[in-house]
Amino acid sequence: MQSFRELKFRAIHLIRTRHTDPTLDAVSVAQALHVSRRHLDRAFREGQSVSEVITAFRVTTALDLLGSARVRNLETLTRLSGFTDRNTFRANFVRLCGITPSRARELAIEATNEDLLEVSVGGSQSHSHEALSRWAMLR
Fold it and tell me: How many CA atoms lie within 13 A of 5 on its CB side?
């Protein structure tokens, strides 16, 4: 029988690789690892729950996608990050990041534009670094 530590490691690895699947939840993680949901929950007794880990990976993915040109709207961002509906996505994003997805996108665009400006025309370093710092804090 595997230890709780090993089970938690395997679960986190599975979540990391499949978190964008909207059907992934604690029950499906337990099934994939051939353990009961209760046994899996015991492995996550300390720290975040299985569901919280899944949500954290999904929000992190959303943050990574925010600056992407292929993500044009909240529906696309919701789907690509593994959430099933926009309201759940937005609520979890705000809860974990403290700002809305649209505000995070503004910061990402501002940081990217200011960084490009600094490189191309020697813009204000302090202003550019401030925008980049705000964006980095979100990631």
Answer: 0
DSSP secondary structure letter of residue 112 = H
**CA end-to-end span of the chain, whole Å?**
37
Work out the angle at residue 114's Cα, subtended by the Cα atoms of residues 108 and 117, and round it to the nearest 5 degrees.
140
Query: Where do the H-state alpha helices sit in the chain?
Result: 4-18, 26-32, 37-43, 50-66, 74-80, 86-97, 101-121, 125-138
Closest CA to 68 of 100, 42, 105: 105
pLDDT digits (tens, 9 = 90+) for 12-71: 999 999 999 999 999 999 999 999 999 999 999 988 999 999 999 999 999 888 877 667
On whether the CB atoms of residues 83 and 94 are closer than 8 A, the answer is no
pLDDT band at 136 (very low <50, low <70, confident <90, very high): low
Neighbours of 139 (CB within 10 A): 11
